Amino acid sequence: MNTDQAAPLKESWWARLTQSKYFIYILISPLFLVLLAYVIYPFYQTFIQSVVGSEGAGIGNYKRFFSLESTANLEALWTSIYISVISVITCAIVGVTMAFLIERYEFPGRKILSILVLVPMALPPLVGVLSFTFLYGESGIIPRALQALFHLDSVPFSLKGITGVIVVHTFTMYTYFYLTASAAIKGLDPSLEEAATSLGSGRIRIWVKVILPMLTPAMVASALLVFMIAMASYTAPLMFGVERTMTMQIYLSRTNGNLDMAATQSTILSIVSIAFLIMMRWYQGRRNFQNQSKGISVHRTELRTPFMKYLSMLLSFIGVIILMLPILVLVLISFSVDGEWTIQIIPSAYTFDHYIALFTDERTWRPIWNSLQMSFVATIGNILFGVAAAYAMIRTRFKGKALLDILIMIPWALPGTVVAVNLIAAFSEPSVFSFNQVLIGTFWILPLAYFVRHLPLIFRSTSAALMQMDQSVEEAARSLGANWWYTFRRVVVPMAFSGILAGTLLAMVQGLGEFVASILIYSTSTMPLSVAIFQKMYAFQFGTACAYGVLQILLIIFVLFISQKLTNGKAGAVI
Amino acid sequence: MKSVRLDHVSKMFGTAKGVEHVAIDVKPGEFFTFLGPSGCGKTTTLRMIAGFYYPTKGKIFFDNRDVTTLQPNKRNIGMVFQNYALFPHMTVFENIAFGLEVRKLSKSVIKEKVERAQKLVYLDKYGTRKINELSGGQQQRVALARALVIEPDILLLDEPLSNLDAKLREETRLEIKRLQVELGVTTIYVTHDQTEAMTMSDRIMVMKEGVVQQIGTPQEIYNRPANHFVASFIGESNMLEGEVMEISGSTVKVKVDSDLQVEGVLDTAINKIKVEVGKSVKLSIRPEAIFEGQGPNQLHGTIQLVEFTGVSINYLVQVGSATLKVMIINKGNQILKRGDSISLYVPEKGVYFINE
Ligand SMILES: Nc1ncnc2c1ncn2[C@@H]1O[C@H](COP(=O)(O)OP(=O)(O)OP(=O)(O)O)[C@@H](O)[C@H]1O
Ligand SMILES: [Mg+2]
């Protein structure tokens, strides 16, 4: 037994401080400081720029934005909303249909389809759009193949403009609907349906009266999410040349040097995004579609008539092709010799050089190395902040929790374009938060952007892990004599490890693929991977661009696989 | 082994009351139990002793040392949690060794102590098992070993048996008591199960809504409950209220109604209660203090309900306006039926006057 404990307890100022109920505020102040410095302050600077401007203070910029004389901005706002609404509808149709087919019906090819259905998640936005232009663009493989096959004068169809954007959105974002809908369908108690049938309801009636109402919460949540992401979409409009969207307008205003207007547009887009974020949080707080009865696995309906069987086989075959094509085409082109592919349907000459060059040629290796470094730095920051914030959020009590939660989620809701504009507004000049340095044009600005954009990832995965961990385990460690720090190291971190690691890997790959903010603020000395892909694309070095893309996809698949293993298939919760 | 003293300790959660004015003095080596219904503040009091809550008012002493605001990790306590709170990422050995590692003992000493602790709880062959590969009872024993291996000054247990099934609960109860007696460690035990409290404890504190009702040995609590609540919470009891008719010496005669009059002995030395002729008074009669046949406090009633448990025959008997629970030990007596009339008597010692 410890005899040294016989000494009387000293009521030192330190002891009194640490036992004060205000001590927690000292502990969490760094979290708020980080958010203040890198989320609020940049946002505020942008807002100030939009109202102060170069020609005197006032709301002139906002008047100009909403003026009916030059309607470019209003048109952009309208187009963005239009694209987003249509995207929500198409994603909902595709996602929910897929979820129902896969969860409720047994047909040949179901297994493979149920795995491949998540492929779009493995496509970084830029790479996805890239493969779509290769496949379905004006000189894309499919239109040209059809033209050759049917001896047409011109290509029968091609993706461009707003249609192109919506198709790409549908392909990349239906997974949000798919994931929530299939979770909800798994949670649906089949006996409810059976009960309805036994009461004499017909199929359609069951759908309208029983199934759809139960799916509504999941649908509303996904719809809000897809709308938000579609509003923020930048890559698709850029590649399909749709200039009248909010994100493109911001980009154009900046490149034209109209900084005040860029700030105004950013502020307006931020307000829309944050409004949606708050709506989503509010809705998530109310929704509740958990399974009430346990242990019932959904039984799948088998298709009986041979005709239906063949039809379903054909359809799932087409589905698999559509899902795989984007990746296959990237792989194909990554082996093509640059500059040789002009009017042929598919590239004519192949080589392995691009892959060798990736790792041996200093110029092609450079962007990979830059991205690795910058993403690594950002991820370290995300781990420190995310784990601390999650711990504070889950394990301590203080006033202002809801505020902290919203502040952490805001960067996730803000379009990358806006994050970039905010950072430019804040750190083009020295400030306290940048230790009196100008960050724009240095190495540090991109890691900072990645840090801000991916702030919620580790926070959320760690919170989820901590929430499952019983607090009494920590108390047990304390009662055994471990101090707070020892407990944190030996008990909390190991127990939350899978959550922390899943978030970390995700933040790392997202950093490696980040394009939207990067394109606005990179400097040539630290050009990241995604910007390099973009430039190679415009220099017609398709092979190299696609080799970069394949590399990214491999990384993402690897990470998704690992986090699936770590979280026992609950990786969806992280996104 | 240390004593634990709570000096009028209160805990408020904001404006909500946790516990009020708890004053106890647990002797070194004593097995002391907090007993009470859910939400009465047992855990709150225990957590203040452990250091997870600080009292709003009052002080806590281990021996003569004021530990009121000492951090939990500096108190040298062993604590067993209701859900065991084992470290799921560690093996049985690592779990038990945790507290010793914190104390920076050498590897060989740790190994020796952990192995001895494992033997103590019959888990010597399970050192390399992961926690999720153990049964509930085994996990419970790991938690116990982990708390005991650090040779705590005080052992705190918060409903350690509530997650076990009935059979295992009994076994583990005996196990805990055996270890406590062998090691002689001062133990504070929290439960809402009166059987556990009665069988294990040296002394029991009965609580209700954050207020201490009675502190005493199991016999005192059972035979001389301080009030209505204690009498009805511990064991079964017939609670009656009537008018005092006559006081002669220490014998008090009470009329519950015209068919039910009882006489009891009031020992004012242990039972501080005022009785006056013509005033009303409350009394408690345990079902097993009522006998079939002829004797003092003779009663006659009609049987309403019969229950045969094996050990005993339980009757619900209507006597005047009151319904009495009666327990007759089964010695092969004839079992009466509903509607039969029955003669009962209550020895004077079986009548106990109580406070409000
Ligand atoms: N952290 C807390 N914040 C607010 N109120 C609390 C807190 N902990 C306990 N209480 C309240 O204090 C009272 C006593 O709670 P306590 O947990 O001590 O009860 P208990 O006797 O251990 O009950 P049980 O047998 O259910 O565990 C309850 O009314 C409870 O609601
Ligand atoms: Mg409790």
Describe this structure in words.
Chain B: InterPro entries: AAA+_ATPase, ABC_transporter-like_ATP-bd, ABC_transporter-like_CS, ABC_transpr_MalK/UgpC-like, Mo/tungstate-bd_C_term_dom, NA-bd_OB-fold, P-loop_NTPase, Transp-assoc_OB_typ2. Chain B: Keywords: ATP-binding, Nucleotide-binding, Transport. The complex is a heterodimer of chains A (575) and B (356). Chain A has 575 residues and is mostly helical. Chain A contains 25 helices and 2 strands. Chain A has helices at residues 13-19, 23-52, 60-65, 72-104, 110-116, 125-136, 141-149, 161-187, 190-198, 203-232, 235-239, 246-255, 259-286, 306-334, 353-360, 362-395, 401-413, 416-427, 445-453, 455-467, 471-479, 484-513, 518-521, 529-538, 542-566, and strands at 105-106, 301-302. The longest helix of chain A has 34 residues, at 362-395. A two-stranded parallel sheet of chain A has the order 1-2. The radius of gyration of chain A is 26 Å and the shape is globular. Chain A has a domain at 71-99 and 116-288: MetI-like fold (Orthogonal Bundle), CATH 1.10.3720.10. Chain B has 356 residues and is of the alpha+beta class. Chain B has 2 domains: 4-230, Rossmann fold (3-Layer(aba) Sandwich), CATH 3.40.50; 236-354, OB fold (Dihydrolipoamide Acetyltransferase, E2P) (Beta Barrel). Helix content of chain B is 24%, strand content 36%. In chain B, the strands form 4 sheets. A 6-stranded mixed sheet of chain B has the order 6-7-8-3-9-10, sandwiched between helices. Chain B has a 5-stranded antiparallel sheet with strand order 13-12-11-14-20. A 5-stranded antiparallel sheet of chain B has the order 15-19-16-17-18, with no helix packed on it. In chain B, a hairpin with a 2-residue loop joins strand 12 and strand 13. The model of chain B has no long low-confidence stretch (mean pLDDT 90). Bound molecules: adenosine-5'-triphosphate and magnesium ion. Adenosine-5'-triphosphate (ATP) is lined by residues 13, 16, 18, 36, 38-44, 192 of chain B.
